[in-house]
Description:
5 helices, globular
Amino acid sequence: MSTELTPIVGPQALPGTTHKSLLTIQKATVKKQLLAAEFSEQVDLQSKPREFTMQGTELVHPALERCFARLVPHFCLLTEQLSESADFWSNDGATEPMPEHFDSYGITGLIIGKKDGVTLMGFRKLESGKVLNLTGQYVSFAEQSDEFEESNAWHYPHTDDLKTLVDEALAEIDAALRGKCSEAGRQLDMFQQPQIGEMEMGEVVQSEQPAALPGTTLPGAASKRKAKRVAAE
Length: 233
């Protein structure tokens, strides 16, 4: 006996309704413009979460790539690759390319902590041409107590801005899991058949007729030959 499973995320997840399932993303990476994600899904808050691992086959939307690019400055600080300077935040990458000192760095993914926080994953291109993969320090988004603020515990000074950018990235990842992708990644139907009324000028459509038996002619063939003789006279 087989049991029909409810489809996961996407347009067919809840047919006939506009309600969206609830997605909780644990990990997401983008490599070669393809999204891979680990997440759980709930039809509603009362439902038990279902765990999924997904490897995308369509190119991600440019909006998701921009979200990842805007995380690069934070990644450089959290991996201690660059020091914060006067022109470090000269552009957040929202409308223009990132400053040149970020050219050798990139974000490949993020891991969301169970207690509201993030770990950024990325790389640095070395002068030798090789790639150094790096993982940033974990940053908690939970509210810090007065005792924590007074202690010597490490605290990232740009936590609020990082949280805003991570939330934007998660929104794009959620949209990608529901079908949002780059139009360049969609394949067109190369063998689409023309519909009625879409025939090109001069195109002839032949009707199906039975083949003539040896020594016989199809109906109408004799009248066509007669018409030709009359025209010749």
